[in-house]
Amino acid sequence: MSGTNNSKFTFNQSVQYYFDKASALTEHSEGLLSQIKACNSVIRMRFPVKVKGEYHTLEAYRAQHSHHKTPCKGGIRYSEGVDQDEVIALASLMTYKCAIVDVPFGGAKGGIKINPKKYTTGQLQRITRRYTTELIKKNFIGPAIDVPAPDYGTGAREMSWILDTFVTFNPGMIDAYGCVTGKPVTQSGIRGRVEATGRGVFFGVREAVSVAEDMKALGLTTGIEGKRIVVQGLGNVGFHSAKIFQENGAHVIGVAEYEGAIYDPTGKGFDIDALFEHRTHTGSILNFPGAKNIENSSEALELDCDILIPAAIERVITAENAPRIKAKIIAEAANGPTTPEAEEILLERGIMVLPDVYLNAGGVTVSYFEWLKNLSHVRFGRMSKRHEEMVQRRFVDAIEQNTGKKLRPEERNLIIQGGSEVDIVRSGLEDTMMGAYQDIHATWKTYNGVRDLRTAAFVVAINKVATSYIELGIFP
Ligand code: GLU
After folding, report:
1. For residue 143, how far is its CA from the centre of ligand 1 (angstroms)?
2. Which of 35, 55, 163, 227 is found 20 to 30 A from 9 (Cα to Cα)?
3. Ligand 1 pocket check for 143: Cβ under 6 Å
4. What angle separates helix 453-471 from helix 30-37, to the nearest 10 degrees?
5. Closest approach atom of ligand 1 to CA 73
6. From atom 8 of ligand 1, which residue's Cα is the shortest distance away?
7. 37 flagged as catalytic
8. How far does the centroid of ligand 1 lie from the alpha carbon of residue 387, in Å?
9. Segments of the chain assigned to CATH 3.40.50.10860
10. Does domain 196-359 have CATH number 3.40.50.740?
């Protein structure tokens, strides 16, 4: 699926390159900046797993990039691409991401170098439990220490296994359920977490396309309605992004996956649920009724569209394909999909890049809500929903009595309804993504020397982490 990756930077070097570009514009001391940039701790693990009577030695990592706020936070990925450089790069992105959306955590990331598709469920469970045990032994997991979550190749199922292992080794720890997020709702997870990254991508793009002046410069109209979207990756993030864009009037005209890509020659856009169903049944997105197949999946990145959403892996937009990209906006739902060389070309061509450190922060934002729920041991809305409804009912009754007019029952119900957990989560996420965009946008437009949104996002992040270190007295 990836393009030819001809970057001179490793993934971690590219994150450092973005950091350096932004930090040069700030006024912090060299010592403070080098502390913010450095990855504080990394553990590398090797452990055996027995597969069909044979032992395989697996390689795994957990990196804690920053402890300016604790616990550390970040996903765990299962992929053959996992190595120390990647885990450190992703952990650093988590630090900046959390700072941008005001989630009070340091950044972390873990990974096991496996292709999960090659293992049975039982084997994956053993691998996950063994990895968790290693983290426990090294004091690299816990609700106040380091809180993993899903990432590429993992999901709610793996988080349940992590939880069960942690709870088993920590009997009596009352906040133990906060040791991991992205759990199933029935295991103290939170409603709205699965879709959170995709919904956050939607809110972020919606903010960006609402600024008339920026859209004019791109030759686009404001608003989501009618925008032509291409999505790379139909995993959790890509699927939910695509579905939410479709629900809000955009046309998803292209979708790319490992097996190939498809596009809609009519321009009306795919029905994402139907496409997902088709893939589940046939094992492929190809040959979807009404769609045209594209054999070479990465060519989908070059389709004529308004918004391109890379939602799979890193380094797919490179110096090689960047000159041919036709999208006006690149919405980085994945972590690190654009190489620095590609970004130079895109910016030069006037393409807007909505950077990963901001745009995919919806996942960790709702992870934060889940962690808060776990520490408070109560579902959001449980104590307040009926009370809110009672107050609102009295209010509507008073208006009806005083005006002598009655609302229609559906209007009345809509006004009276108290917030359920998913309503509260979605509105918290919306507010977070809107507020963070306004910060980044203002920095882009007004901060001396900032010329693009990624640099703006890094400046915002660096300034917030720096403030922490200064206020804590660690730096003068
Ligand atoms: N893996 C996700 C990310 O890269 C979520 C991390 C979390 O929820 O802690 O942002």
Report:
1. 15
2. 35
3. no
4. 110
5. 9
6. 364
7. no
8. 34
9. 37-187
10. no
69, 73, 109, 385: the catalytic one is 109
Q: Which atom of ligand 1 is nearest to the CA of 335?
A: 4
Instruction: Enumerate the CATH 3.40.50.720 domain ranges in the chain, comma separated.
Output: 196-359
Distance of CA 381 to the CA centre of its chain: 25
How confident is the prediction along the chain (476 residues), in pLDDT tens digits per residue?
334 568 999 999 999 999 999 999 999 999 999 999 999 999 999 999 888 889 999 999 999 999 999 999 999 999 999 999 999 999 999 999 999 999 999 999 999 999 999 999 999 999 999 999 999 999 999 999 999 999 999 999 999 999 999 999 999 999 999 999 999 999 999 999 999 999 999 999 999 999 999 999 999 999 999 999 999 999 999 999 999 999 999 999 999 999 999 999 999 999 999 999 999 999 999 999 999 999 999 999 999 999 999 999 999 999 999 999 999 999 999 999 999 999 999 999 999 999 999 999 999 999 999 999 999 999 999 999 999 999 999 999 999 999 999 999 999 999 999 999 999 999 999 999 999 999 999 999 999 999 999 999 999 999 999 999 999 999 98
